[in-house]
């Protein structure tokens, strides 16, 4: 724990610096958040300048600048320009602070990221700058100091600064994705970083384990497991050996944490009928949220916690409904199709993503006013279990488009669909974590 | 009167004749023959009775074996005969109902047995919903058995959703096999 703290401190940016007129507030007009992916911003990211030449510095400047390009590319906001087209070699410029912007505007770059790398033993210092090449202005400048092995954290932190400046949102670079994988021979819960990096197994129950759900502080995870022979609900602290198991007769499934509370909704069938209940984080029933005969399940909360979308078969087919918790009134949200399940409420609060079946399963997004729905996946196997990134810009989901079920990511508008990771076996039911403090 | 006289006369003549015959016979041999005959008879009787016993036992054994086989067959049928459902439905079809009637009969005849009903689904649809659907399938089979007089305390249900397909195929034939209620004895 102590080591961890020391590391964190080392990673703190040493300085924000401004040049000339400098940074003048956030530039939210760079990325139109209502249609962010209609036009990608061309950005140039040359290999970082090596302050002192050397093999290790050479490697680091290459990997760090490559990682920065990949990380920004992941957001879907940018068009990363080909380095072969660059007119200037950053290694030959005398000072990183003096940029000939014409060299960049003439190849179409609207944004430019430059970096300088200095190695001292196992320590690295990185100086990173974001420029607007047309306005010839420094937008964000930071200097970081840390261990060489922390370069990924440094790069991500600077990317967060860039995204925060351009969109006003903290972005996704500190977030993680939980999912189910059977590559150990049993379905277990795994967690990877937002870009699929560093997948690791977090349950070892050697059973069927399903439906991971992050608490909104990212510290707890609820899931269903057959470890004791039947589908029970596990509520576990991710770092400490704390938690509880709800093991009532019937099914104990589909947990969904109430935003910013140590409470969650889940589906229990001990009454003989599956209904959604509100539970404390310690597993005690607070009250019953649905009371209709027939299947009710899969709650998902509006960001303010005042409304809950869920799946119900009350009309004869599984459809998504929205219930206002205070009034208790439920209204049907989806009318197209005969099988709409797995709702996921967007972090901005205005939309619900879900899986709809017409032959195969596909991902749809519908406004909470019923606008749409818009189909985001087409003709690519079964696409299921959508979950929003904490900034609402991306959706993670599972797809069988390449055969076995794997985890994929796309923008909230359905563009830039790509595989997040591929482990042995099959991966399903991704759940994107909330944004987690700096790390 | 005359007839009676004739019988007396006959007796006077015949009986000494018989006595004479006996005294003239080879006593020992006759006696041995008689003993061995007796032993043989006894052995034969014994054998016959043993054979009869064995036959009875065999019949009984066969009866027991047949009974056991019949019970095992009934038990196997209880365990192996699944009930099937339509897509996204927990409604008991006519065939499922007739199978459940046999299962109810078995449960009533085997009062000490407790059973678990597994509800399964095909891979279509989504995992969570299929867990609820499998739960509903187990529940509707349980309710049907209880209506036929099986105590609810002897029946439990478990849903496996789409997690344990019996046929891993991705076609209607496989799906039809996987949309099932399966029974186990606890």
Characterization of this structure:
The complex is a heterodimer of chains A (439) and B (186). Chain A has four helices and 31 strands. Chain A is mainly beta. Chain A has two domains: 166 residues, 3-Layer(aba) Sandwich (Rossmann fold); 257 residues, TolB, C-terminal domain (Neuraminidase), CATH 2.120.10.30. In chain A, α2 packs parallel to α4. The longest helix of chain A is centred in the first third of the chain and has 20 residues. Chain A is elongated, with a radius of gyration of 24 Å. Chain B folds into two domains: 49 residues; 102 residues, 2-Layer Sandwich (60s Ribosomal Protein L30, Chain: A). Chain B has five helices and four strands. Chain B has a four-stranded mixed β-sheet with strand order 1-4-2-3. Classes of the chains: A mainly beta (439), B alpha+beta (186). Chains A and B meet through loops of A and α4 and β3 of B.
Short structural summary:
By secondary structure, chain A is mainly β. Chain A has 4 helices and 31 strands.
Can you identify the CATH superfamily of the largest domain in chain A? TolB, C-terminal domain
* Beta-strand content bin of chain B: 5-15%
The CATH class of the largest domain in chain B turns out to be Alpha Beta
Contiguous helical run count of chain A: 4
Order of helices and strands of chain B: HHEHEHEHE
Q: What about the largest sheet of chain A?
A: 7 strands, mixed
Strand residues, percent of chain A: 35-45%
Class by helix and strand content of chain A? Answer: mainly beta
Uncertain regions of chain A: pLDDT < 50 for 5+ in a row? 1-12, 18-24
The CATH architecture of the largest domain in chain A can be given as 6 Propeller
What is the fold-level CATH name, i.e. the topology of the largest domain in chain A? Neuraminidase
Oligomerization state of this entry?
heterodimer
